[in-house]
Write a structure and sequence with these properties.
Elements: H1 28-39, E1 43-52, E2 55-63, H2 73-88, E3 103-108, H3 119-124, E4 129-134, E5 139-148, E6 151-158, E7 168-169, E8 173-176, E9 180-185
Parallel strand pairs: 2-3
Antiparallel strand pairs: 1-2, 4-5, 4-9, 5-6, 6-7, 6-8
Length: 190
């Protein structure tokens, strides 16, 4: 299998998600798959084709919208089935994938290690603790306080001066998306 390109670490490095593209800007394959994913009320993060003719991998990354619960196995299964059926039914040539091209379809969610780069990513993780680099500095721990069109408000978390001392929380401060990079949600076990 082809190695997957590394994830964008900031908004500046990222490409628009398929669900953010105007329908006329989508490739034929993005339009087909994005329409199916969105028809299930989900977000289509990306559609990638890797490999060589006859040995293609079509990777589809789906996500929940901000007001939904986590994407569950049933949704991935349903989207996989529907996308597979639609691709198999294609009689006409799609520039990215010919009808006689053998391919493997992979449908997945972004995963916990994927950096937050778009407003959508930040919104669905509102209230969570993250590690983030601000203005290219060293990563700091913060809580996502609020999300806006031009950036987010973060509450910075400073560890206690000595082991066992309480952490300190700053007042929420606004940061533009362009100031933030390498933002990853910390997995909190309950």
């Amino acid at each position: 299998m082809a190695s997957r390109p590394s994830f964008a670490q900031s908004l500046h490095e990222s490409q628009p998600a398929v669900s953010e593209l105007d329908p006329i800007e989508r490739t034929e394959l993005q339009a087909l798959i994005g329409g199916i994913v969105e028809g299930h009320g989900l977000w289509c993060e990306e559609v990638l084709i890797e490999g060589t003719p006859g040995d293609r991998v079509v990777s589809v990354v789906i996500d929940r919208l901000e007001d939904q619960d986590d994407v569950i196995i049933d949704a991935i299964t349903t989207v996989t089935r529907d996308v597979s059926e639609a691709l198999d039914a294609q009689d006409e040539w799609i520039p990215e994938l010919r009808p006689d091209d053998a391919y493997t379809l992979e449908v997945s969610t972004p995963g916990t290690d994927r950096p937050l780069v778009r407003r959508h990513h930040w919104q669905k993780n509102l209230g969570r603790i993250i590690n983030v680099a601000i203005d290219g500095g060293e990563p700091v721990e913060a809580k996502i306080h609020s999300v806006h069109d031009d950036g987010v408000e973060l509450t910075l978390i400073t560890p206690g001066a000595k082991k066992g001392m309480p952490v300190k929380y700053s007042e929420p401060e606004h940061y533009g998306y362009e100031q933030l990079s390498n933002a990853v949600v910390q997995v909190q076990l309950k």
